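Run: sequence + 9MR -> complex structure.
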Amino acid sequence: QGQTLSEAIRLNQLGYYPNAAKIAVVVGEAKGAFQLVSADLKTVVFSGKLSDTRQNAISGKTTRTADFSTFTKTGTYVVLIPGTGHSFPFEIRPSVHRNLAIGALKGFYYQRVSTDLPAKFAGKWARPAGHPDNRVLIHPSAASKDRPAGTVIGSPRGWYDAGDYNKYIVNSGITMGTLLSLYEDFPAYMNALKTDIPESTNKIPDLLDEVLWNLRWMLTMQDPTDGGVYHKLTNPRFDGMIMPDKAVNDRYVVQKSITATLDFAAVMAQAGRVYKAYNRELPGLADSCVSAATKAWNWAKANPTVVYNQADMNAKFDPDVVTGSYEDRNASDEWIWAAAELYATTKDESYYKAVNLFPDTKTPLPAWPQVRTLAYYTLARFGNDLTPLGKKDVLLVKQHLTTMADSLLMGADKQAFQTVMGKSAKDFIWGSSAEAANQGIALLQAYRLTNSPNRSQYLQYALGNLDYLLGRNAVGYSFVTGFGDKTPMHPHHRPSIADGVAEPVPGLLSGGINANAARQDKCAGYISTVADEVYIDADCSYASNEIAINWNAPLVYLAFALEALQND
Ligand code: 9MR
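>> structure
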């Protein structure tokens, strides 16, 4: 029995850094000894004892851990529990997550709109260009004097948002903020990185080349007359399960919104900072970004109450639009994020004075409707380079990051899978995989930016959440397509469904466990109703098995950041 695979043993299916914590979790009644064995099952290299019983606070199931942190020798191994079986094979080695990080960044390349993906870069997932978006219609809700309904504009490029083919500014906002922050936080590592995209031979770092594909699209979403930004570019209804080039329905830009415009302002201000160093390769781009950000800010000041309400819009205008709404009635956090980015870039204090950072009772985890903490990351990042007005708040901002990280840590050592993720059933929302990745980022920001005595734990538990994403969780999946042994084969992702290739497009993060998924997508076949077990690898499950750019971005951040920090 010890010779058979046991999926009760949950671990990071890619592996572990030699000098980091190395923990596997066994679900069920196994107890006693465990071994670390070479992948051919012939040589025992380490023996240990399973921990005392731990109860999963959500399901009540019994778990124990196998801790082999002290074993540091490079190689490929399995965890074997006599009487239970052995785990999937995994590696112990330096840079064990580097290919994953590159693959997750490449996931954005596969999401590119308006371009062929040739086999040279896309392998068996090569496909013809979809959605040129060079003839996009102004929806009646977006009509203005200069651009009446039906006006044709060009709005090419960008990334497909998710498993669908639409492009949404709000969700692009946090996605771009996360990727640009990765660049600002780890410039040396990201400058040296070469992946395999068409632009890899130019002088711009690959990460910034990829981000540029979406940045150029975002710039087209601003009405040049008044600076307002259209909420999304979409067809009225979701496409069928067809390839991008077969999806040729009319596309519209719909009404401008306060959240889209402020998120746009934040991204453009940050891009203005980041691309300034590439003025020779991209003449004028950085300045255009800052000026677009300023114009967007001014529109926001003049239109603070223009929220996006799809039902209201549909009551007034045709055609009705029923695609993703990214509705958010509270723009106070978007104001703070835009203000912080504009202030950090321009040093103009009027932006900072326009919002109130404090008092703030909590520091919420970033997510598409909640971007305030992204402002904190930026203010803390620039700390001493800010003007005195902002500098005086940096200590408090950093304290908030520490408090946030400490509250994430609290009780993680008692959690069944030894992760920050999943301490509470509340973590298992739509896109919970991104929750895990964003928790990891929050811990890493506190690790980088504060002097907390808990710093080493921040790093350890950030890595723990990557372990979660790669298999140490209640369903035993590695949630990244193509990375790990048990990974999603049927994500809700139109190209993966329609391309006739057995394997899904690689490097995409499934939204993952979602306590309410069965009710939301009504897909048949969910096998559990326990909050941390509601997940199904079926393409009908858009609530638990879709992929999305705002989920991939924090994975890209977390994986690259941990690679860059692996020797800390
Ligand atoms: O990520 C979004 C999630 O927070 C919402 O609960 C859900 C339902 O409104 O929508 C998710 O976003 C989807 C978007 O609306 C359309 N493209 C696919 C996105 C991921 O499922």
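>> summary
The pocket of 9MR is lined by residues 161-162, 164, 324, 326, 430-431, 542, 546, 548 (CB under 6 Å). The first strand starts at residue 9 and ends at 10.
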